[in-house]
Design a protein that fits this description.
globular; 14% strand; alpha+beta; single chain; two-stranded parallel ribbon; 4 helices
Length: 91
């Protein structure tokens, strides 16, 4: 007999956003609709992210000081904090 576990959404991640007014309107709408679920971190659209395949490495390796690398690091910190908040028994 299979065991089924409840699945919960940890959060919604906004990615590859631009400064275009239409993109910003979508970001604002999602944040307004799901304020508790949308991650504060937003992954920006950056041209050098398309170079991942050429470098065969994640952006944190070939451009560690860039906006995208900083955003992915911030996301990791935010995800870990949310997971820790779900486990009140964890130290």
């Amino acid at each position: 007999m299979r065991e089924y576990h409840a699945v919960a959404i940890l959060g919604y991640l906004l990615t590859l956003t631009t400064r275009h007014p239409a993109a910003q309107a979508v970001v604002a709408a999602v944040q307004a609709a799901y304020p508790a679920l949308v991650f504060r971190t937003v992954i920006p659209r950056r041209a050098h992210l398309t170079l991942d395949g050429r470098y065969q490495a994640p952006v944190g390796v070939y451009a560690p000081g860039g906006a995208a690398a900083r955003a992915y690091h911030a996301l990791a910190v935010e995800v870990l904090a949310r997971v820790a908040a779900l486990r009140p028994d964890a130290p």
